[in-house]
Amino acid sequence: MKTSSTLALSLCALLATPVLAQEVDPGDVSVLSQQGQRLKIAVPFGAEPGARIPVMRFHVAAVEASPGYRAPTLRGFTVSKPERRNVIFLQSAEPVDAPQLRLVLAVAGEQAQEYEYDIAVPPARATRVAGPAPSEATQPAPQRKPRARKPGNGLNRP
Predict the structure, then answer these.
(1) CB of 121 closer than 8 Å to CB of 34
(2) What average pLDDT values come out for the chain (158 residues) when binned by 10 residues?
(3) Which pLDDT belongs to residue 155?
(4) Residue 25's beta-bridge partner residues?
(5) In this predicted structure, what is the pLDDT of residue 154?
(6) Are the C-beta atoms of residues 24 and 45 closer than 8 Å to each other?
(7) 110-115 long-range contacts, CB within 8 A, separation 24+
(8) Is 25 in contact with 46 (CB distance < 8 Å)?
(9) Which of 97, 122, 135, 156 is in the most buried spot, having the most CB atoms within 10 Å?
(10) What is the pLDDT of residue 118?
């Protein structure tokens, strides 16, 4: 029994080592949200072809907001990664009103690394809730012309 558990532990260590040893090189951040929404960003990363990098290697280590604004809490960030894609998504638990954030992304591995990003959060866009746009309200609605019925169209057969 001792031999099988030792073998299982050795196998687990062997399988885990290549995952942590693989280099991960995060790229530029894409902001997918706007002010007043939960912060959502995408971070592509480079890795060896065919490498399967687990999402557990990534976490938000620090976040600061512009002066006068509140930064989202660290514990509120979720990290997700689509299967077989080299991109991670980070999302805060609460809305962000700050126009600028500084975020530190930590990547675990044999040599843990941190990457610092200065993020510009776009201002909230106004969305139209209901009713016509102002330019449409001043224009008359288009009139539909009734179609003339053709005799013998097959609808009223004797």
Answers:
(1) yes
(2) 43 42 80 97 85 87 96 94 89 96 92 93 77 54 55 54
(3) 52
(4) 46
(5) 53
(6) yes
(7) 110/20, 110/21, 113/24, 114/61, 115/26
(8) yes
(9) 97
(10) 96
Neighbours of 122 (CB within 10 A): 12
Instruction: Write the DSSP assignment of 107-140 as a string of letters.
Output: E-SSS-EEEEEEEEPPPPPP---SS--HHHHHSP
**CA–CA gap between residue 75 and residue 96 (Å, rounded):** 15
Q: What is the pLDDT of residue 55?
A: 86
**pLDDT score for 46:** 84
β partners of residue 45: 26
Q: Are 79 and 55 in contact (CB under 8 A)?
A: yes
SS3 12: helix
CA distance linking residue 120 with residue 85, whole number of Å: 25
Structure tokens at 100: 């600028």
**What is the C-alpha separation between 35 and 125, in angstroms, rounded?**
9
**59: which residues sit within 8 A by CB, 6+ positions away?**
77, 79, 105, 106, 108
- The 3-state secondary structure of 51-74 reads CCCCHHHEEEEEEEECCCCCCCCH
The two three-digit tokens of residue 6, written as one number? 């030792």
Question: Both tokens of residue 68?
Answer: 């006068």
| Count of beta carbons in the 10 Å neighbourhood of residue 83 | 6
